[in-house]
Amino acid sequence: MKIKEVRVIVSSPGRNFVTVKIITDTGIYGLGDGTVNGREMAVAAYLEEHVAPCLIGRNAHDIEDIWQYLYKGVYWRKGPITMAAIGAVDMALWDIKGKAAGLPVYQLLGGKSRKAFTLYGHATGNTVEDTLENMAFLVNQGFKAVRLQSAIPGLDGTYGVLGDKKNYFELQSDRPLPPELPWSTLKYFNMIEELFAKARERFGNNIHLCHDVHSRLTPIEAGRLGKLLEPYNLLFLEDAVAAENQESYRIVRDHTTTPQALGEIYNTIWDCKDLIQNQWIDYIRMAATHAGGITAMRRIADFASMYHVRTAPHGAPDLSPICHAAHGHLNMWAPNFGVQEFVGFGTKQSNEVFKYDLKLQDGMVSVGDSPGLGVDFDEQAAKKYPYKRSYLPVSRLEDGTLWSW
Ligand code: EZ4
Ligand code: CO
Asked: Which tens digit of pLDDT belongs to each residue from 352-388?
């Protein structure tokens, strides 16, 4: 089964997505997601100019060899753009293999480990009360886990809370440069305990709570936060500290029993090797798109399972439905699956372009029996939504110092 054509389509049905379509000489095609939010055209150029020509004529069944060829073979290993390009190709090849076998990808991975997989929804608000109202909305739909984020009093704008502007960081086509948001660790600490104390007061102890710190703290501050939140029994604290230096998490671990989740911006197993091996974290949050596809995610899950680390894939809307579907198959298989982040199955516009075989019920998702990834992509519909330059925000301290976003 030879690869005949590799198409790279950048479209913007509500937000930008980089989609790869690999077509074989049998007519079977596969789809992959290569979206890197704010750097989409870099991945598209990498794929079109450097990757696609090397794939033509190869056997689409050789997933592992093609992965190694694109990783080791290029000499320049790793990095978000390279790994997203590999991720997109890898997903498309698993999709093809599943279609050729007449089996959903989770069957190729080893079959189902569970009936459905659990999600955590996002509840955000401009005040603690607003956030809890949004949590009630999710709880009423049957969600078993919720991530809570609330605006920080005294700061004009907080990560994940856009007030009446939008409920997520969607396209900023009207603001062509990255928006800037202020940060104050002091003011954050004045708000955060109340959010979780009130959530437990109102919703009791039979629901999982999570929180995303978005890498704003130092290790010792993260230790303090974890300790402060211990009475509220979080499922995990996400991205408490930017851990390019993985050793940083030793400090966090030494000071709190609040479980730690990390990894949505990581690209390879090497970014989390020490974190996992030293058991400094509890959940690994890498995404199939950004970590080099299903092949890489499977290897990371198996490695993590040796250290009691569970998977909790990134589920932001800046991953396309193809990546969400890839996560669905991985989540059905992974014996050490933990929880899946969920912000929705896309918008009205993206649902015109992408189709997927996933069903949401009571805060859990089941994956259908469609062969491959069970996704489809309507190229004609995508043409209606051309690429629009867009950026993620940046974060600054109140004195203007650039901070982690
Ligand atoms: O900031 O997807 O856990 N989810 C997140 C997301 C990320 C965006 C950035 O690409 O942190 O909201
Ligand atoms: Co996050």
From this structure: 999 999 999 999 999 999 999 999 999 999 999 999 9
Do 331 and 352 fall into the same domain?
A: yes
First to last CA, the chain: 44
- Residue 51: HSE in the Cβ half-sphere, 13 Å Cα cutoff: 30
Last residue of a domain, one of 105, 135, 163: 105
Is 364 within 8 Å of 339 (Cβ atoms)? no
Tens-digit pLDDT profile for residues 378-402? 999 999 999 999 888 899 999 999 9
Residue carrying the six token digits 């809370």 = 161
Number of domains in the chain: 2
Residues whose beta carbons lie less than 5 angstroms from ion ligand 2: 212, 264
Tens-place pLDDT, residues 23-41: 999 999 999 999 999 999 9
CA of 121, nearest ligand number: 1
> Is residue 49 located within the same domain as residue 169?
no
Q: Nearest to residue 290, comparing CAs of 56, 90, 31?
A: 90
Nearest atom in ligand 1 to 405's CA: 1
Strands in 93-179 per DSSP E: 117-125, 145-150
pLDDT digits (tens, 9 = 90+) for 315-330: 999 999 999 999 999 9
Mutation choice for ligand 1 from 36, 148, 214, 390, CB with most ligand atoms inside 8 A: 214
pTM of the predicted protein model:
0.97
Query: Could you identify the atom of ligand 1 that is nearest to the CA of residue 37?
Result: 10
Q: Which of 71, 17, 92, 33 is nearest to 288 (CA)?
A: 33
Of 105, 126, 161, the position where a domain reaches its end is 105
**Residues lining ligand 1, Cβ inside 6 A:** 37, 212, 214, 264, 314, 316, 318, 341, 392
Ligand 1 centroid – CA 206 distance (Å) = 26
Looking at residue 15, which CATH number applies to its domain?
Answer: 3.30.390.10
| Distance from the alpha carbon of residue 168 to the mean position of ligand 1, in angstroms | 9
Give the range among 11-25, 84-98, 152-166, 382-396 with minimum mean pLDDT. 152-166
Nearest ligand 1 atom to alpha carbon 238: 3
- Mind giving me the DSSP string for 40-84? HHHHHHIIIIIIHHHHTTSBTT-HHHHHHHHHTTTSS---HHHHH
Taking each continuous run of H as one helix and of E as one strand, the counts in the chain are 14, 18
